[in-house]
Predict the structure of Helix-turn-helix transcriptional regulator.
Amino acid sequence: MDEQTGTNNNCKESAGSSICEVLQILGAKWAFLVLEELLKGPQRFNQLQRNVSIVKTQSLTDTLRHLVNNGLVLRKVFPTVPVTVEYSLTEKGKDFQTALLEMDKWVQKWGNPALAGQTSVQSS
């Protein structure tokens, strides 16, 4: 496991595996959480950081950078003083909502009953 990105280096050896391809595209272990949060709409970095407070600042920065580089998240810079940066999902990122909804269904059925209902994917 690569500590910086949270990706599994063994996936590089498993050429052709669709799960490994998904993990390479999503990258960091916090990507699912960030994508779920951005499904609610565009957010500035500090707002996103508050909403996913479990994620440390550097990890959030790395995750966003990876998602931007892989075309799932759009980083828009506004020429204000200080500079304002807003993150939103691209069409590719929005399309991942289907997978998140299926994961949510799976957790509802098989997840820890003590945690049930604490998180759910927003449908739009």
User: Anything to note?
Assistant: The beta strands are 43-44, 73-78, 84-89. Residues 9-108 form a domain with the Arc Repressor Mutant, subunit A fold (CATH 1.10.10.10). The mean pLDDT is 84. The chain has one domain: 9-108.
